[in-house]
Design brief:
By secondary structure, the protein is an alpha/beta fold. It has 11 helices and 13 strands. Helix 1 crosses helix 6 and helix 7 packs across helix 11. It is globular and about 55 Å long. About 45% of the residues are buried.
């Protein structure tokens, strides 16, 4: 069985590949020209040069494959050119799913995000069925992923055997960029996190998140969504775990929300002029207004999603960042 994967060089994609290889699967990875492939170094993977914006490369790349994992996404909290994000996340998703339909694949797993789901924001966990609409999406990343999910729904209606997974916040090794959450860990390690906002996240070990993708392929119901998450934690609690792991002191100053939001607006305005990534991304601050808590019990019950200790997962992330020179 040959499996095609997009987003192969990224945090989640590279972790999925390792799970596939453990099962003896043949893997063909979509890799853009000039991509950093260090996350795949030494792995028995076939590289397929192509791009989500090149439909022919997708059609040809999927020939001879049985399964598609579409894990690629433009994941940034700020971009000077939002249209590029929609081109990758929305149009690119439609393009690769159309290619999968043409090739008659037996299974597709689409990596969405919990950011596309409904969330009460008051500490009550959101589920796959919590009501939500486009107007609830904060920032271009969430909006583009919400619209991409609607494309996935359209292809299910066309007969594509597709399952959607909605990862929460994975932590662990291979966070090469790093992700916004990985950057919080790196900043903590480098003593650049003197204070925090009162918010919360659902955390999952990246290895469990990757395994959840394979479980969704095998056990997921076509057209269904599965939250790949584990534990809901305040940001303060996450820092306390990092303190226990590293011995470094957790920040004790809780910042008021309103002034930080104002600074984010100013920062964003300056970034539009300079083109530099804002130090305080507006979308990130707006997201922090809600406790992003989610209930992953459907995935645990129906897929058998593993639930590794979050302290252990954070410990592996810390070790990887230190070994690889981030801190």
């Amino acid at each position: 069985m040959k499996t095609f994967i997009t987003g192969a060089t990224g945090f989640i994609g590279a972790s999925i590949i390792r799970e596939l290889l453990k099962e003896g699967r043949q893997v063909r990875a979509l890799v853009r020209a000039g991509s950093d492939t260090s996350n795949l170094a030494g792995l028995e993977v076939e590289f397929w040069k192509g791009d989500l914006r090149d439909h022919d490369s997708l059609v040809n790349g999927l020939k001879g494959c049985d399964v598609l994992y579409h894990a690629a996404a433009d994941y940034r909290l700020w971009t000077r050119t939002p249209e590029d994000m929609y081109r990758i996340n929305v149009e690119g998703t439609a393009s690769v799913l159309e290619a999968a339909l043409k090739n008659g694949l037996s299974r597709v797993v689409y990596t969405s995000s919990v950011g596309t789901l409904g969330n009460p924001g008051n500490g009550t966990p959101g589920t796959e069925d919590t009501p939500v609409g486009l107007s609830d999406m904060v920032g271009h990343y969430k909006k583009s992923k919400f619209l991409a999910e609607r494309e996935a729904d359209k292809y299910v209606a066309k007969g594509l055997p597709l399952v959607i997974v909605n990862p929460s916040t994975p932590v662990g090794p291979l966070d090469i960029k790093p992700t916004p959450t990985g950057k919080i860990i790196v900043d903590f390690l480098n003593r650049k996190m003197p204070a925090y906002l009162d918010t919360g996240l659902n955390i999952i070990a990246v290895e469990d998140c990757a395994r959840g993708h394979l479980l969704a392929e095998k056990r997921g119901a076509v057209g269904s969504k599965y939250i790949l998450g584990n534990t809901n934690l305040t940001l303060c609690a996450i820092f306390k775990l990092l303190q226990e792991i590293t011995g470094l002191p957790a920040p004790k100053i809780k910042l008021p929300y309103a002034p930080i939001l104002m600074l984010a607006y100013i920062n964003e305005g300056l970034s539009k002029i300079t083109g530099r990534v804002p130090l305080i991304p507006l979308a990130g601050v707006q997201m922090a207004a809600k406790f992003m808590y989610f209930d992953s019990s459907r995935a645990v019950r129906e897929l058998g999603l593993p639930q590794t200790s979050i302290k252990e997962a954070l410990g592996r992330a810390v070790e990887w960042f230190r070994v690889n020179g981030y801190a």
